[in-house]
Amino acid sequence: MNVKDLVMNNFRTEVNKRIANASKNEKLKNSALEFMENSIKSQYSYNFFWLGRPIIQYPQDVLAVQEIIWEKRPDVIIETGIAHGGSLILSASLLALLDLCEATENNTILDPKRPKRHVIGVDIDIRNHNRVAIENHPLSRRITMIEGSSTNEKIFKKVKAAVGDAGRVMVFLDSNHTHEHVLSELRLYAPLVAKDSYIVVFDTVVEDLSEKIVGDRPWGPGNNPKTALTEYLEQIDNTNIRAEDGSLLKLKIDHKIENKLLITVAKNGYLKRV
Ligand SMILES: C[S@@+](CC[C@H](N)C(=O)[O-])C[C@H]1O[C@@H](n2cnc3c(N)ncnc32)[C@H](O)[C@@H]1O
Q: Residue 263 belongs to a domain with what CATH number?
């Protein structure tokens, strides 16, 4: 092992120790929880932009998404829930950087007009002004938008056609947050995830919120992405569901990510295919 690797390994060991300590630090965890409650009340997640488009995410989750994309190097990312397109542009920008790094490593020429990696976004209602802004973004060549419900059979077929024979697929679920909808999404999209890659289920935080904070949304405590993923994980543990590549589908919650973030809308929602 060279000195550079040794230093990096030591650094990672220290990071892991800090994360493990944080997961037992009740004072820190309680202050994070208090921040989550207060920030949700003030609609904090609507305050951010990624390369010019509004992104409805917490900065901590954006950083975690960057880490898993860099580590797993997906060929394709499927996202349900486009809204203003910020998360689509985030994925597209990170995939563009992966293409750039790969071209640099391999000493090959990169043609930005013919991107290799791409992102597929599905939304039941792509507002015209959002569509136009996303289509006019410099990263738009990497983006395919599909309008319709993510759980509709015809829409899902279009997604699969857009994935084509891409090997490394990653999935982000951030559309309708009811139990029924997320469970259907998990049943459709989880089998597409490549081994060792991730499917991220956003807004599991709804389970921990009071009815008052949730308001008149169709989801709430007891009916949300967390309850859906709990049911789905039980189901795949007790049955032999196969992934698209023919091997057994097993997903594991990556608790290290939420223990690191502390502030996240996706506690238990970073699922790794093992
Ligand atoms: C929370 S926003 C997505 C935010 C976006 N991922 C971001 O980070 O900026 C949820 C989106 O899901 C869409 N949506 C709601 N029901 C849906 C469904 N059945 N299928 C697909 N999209 C849906 C809504 O139209 C809305 O744009």
A: 3.40.50.150
List pLDDT tens digits, range 109-120: 999 889 999 999
182 contacts 225 by C-beta, under 8 angstroms = yes
Number of domains the chain contains: 1
Distance CA 69, CA 197 (A): 9
Q: For ligand 1, is residue 225 a contact (CB within 6 Å)?
A: no
> Does any ligand 1 atom lie closer than 6 A to the CB of residue 269?
no
From CA 110, how far away is CA 195, in angstroms rounded? 27
Residue 6 within any structural domain of the chain: no
Q: Which of 68, 69, 88 is nearest to 80 (CA)?
A: 88
Averaged pLDDT of the chain: 96
Query: Is 55's C-beta closer than 6 angstroms to any atom of ligand 1?
Result: yes
In a domain, 147, yes or no: yes
Distance 114 CA to ligand 1 centre (A): 28
Contact 268, 258 (CB under 8 A): yes
Question: Beta 53-55 vs 48-50: how paired, if at all?
Answer: antiparallel
Using DSSP bridges, classify how beta strands 143-147 and 118-123 pair: parallel, antiparallel or unpaired: parallel
**pLDDT over 80 (residue 1):** no
Please name the amino acid found at residue 125.
Answer: D
At residue 7, the pLDDT reads 86
* Calpha distance 240→259 (Å, rounded): 30
pLDDT at 263 over 80: yes
Q: Name the percent of the chain lying above pLDDT 90.
A: 92
Rounded Cα gap, residues 121 and 126, in angstroms: 10
pLDDT in tens, 6-51: 888 899 999 999 999 999 999 999 999 999 999 999 999 999 999 9
The parent domain of residue 90 ranges over 43-273
106: Cβ–Cβ under 8 A, 6 or more apart, which residues? none
